[in-house]
Amino acid sequence: MSKHSLRRLIGTTLAASVALVVLAPAIAGAIVPAGAGTATGPVPVNNTLGQVTGPTADIATVANHLSYQAKSVTTVISAPAGLGLYRPVTISVGYGVTNADGINRITQDYNPATGTRLVFNFPAGDQLAHQQNIWVTLSQSTPRGGVYTWANEWAPTITPLYDVTLSPLTFQLLDDCEIVGNSNIELNWTNPTSSATADFSLGQFDSVTFPQFAGTWSQVSATSKLSQPGFQFTDTGSWYSHLIDWFPGTTFLPGSVSQTPVTLVPGTTSTASMVLTTNSGNPQECHAQISFHETYTLDTYPNL
Fold first, then answer.
1. How many domains, the chain?
2. pLDDT tens digits for 8-65?
3. Which of 189, 229, 180, 181 shows the shortest CA–CA distance to 208?
4. This prediction's pTM
5. Which of 140, 158, 176 is the last residue of a domain?
């Protein structure tokens, strides 16, 4: 074989070898040392990256098909099935905090048969919306034992969502509002989305339960503008509640607790119990205790 033919053969072999790792024209870029690959542009939520370059065609293929999603405290970074790669690509994701399972990094090889999903639930923290940091690294071994890498950072807004359940409300009269006979009670309440009035008659230490108060509110966040319940009650049969209507300019304010400005979230699972008092100017002042249970369930979305 002539020297000219040998040079031609070597040139052809090198070109074929380089073709295995050269990126497609739309994402063209040369092979670069490990760690030199970078993404171009920000990462949108619920979307794939735009055209990005990487140190190898395989890394660029995975990078251009990554999807970033966040809901409540759950984040999902995924790559779909069916990406044709020459050699395996590893997806490693680091998180800015350690979760309840003691995890702050997840690493998996891309699976062309099923795709790859890396699911992570952040701690709820103070239950308010906040940003978190996530670092994505793609890596691929070289034929000579080196490693090519590509890195990108994502800072999603984490907004904890809760299902909040209120139990039925129990009202117990602690002392008589009437000098003689049972007390005629008007109870007003507000729950997070509605209000109601109940009229009933009770003796001292008697109680009544209202299932109408109960309910569940889904996907509640600190910005949902839902408030904790509020209550007030009066004795509608009291001679004093009618007597003060005879004096012009006097307004009767049934006692106790008006709706609180405190939002439903932040909140914790607990039993709420409070003592209400009728109008303090009533000569026959009386008291009642109300109680209900609040259950907070943090929403996670593993199938996001």
1. 2
2. 333 333 333 222 222 222 232 223 333 333 333 333 333 344 578 889 999 999 999 9
3. 189
4. 0.75
5. 158
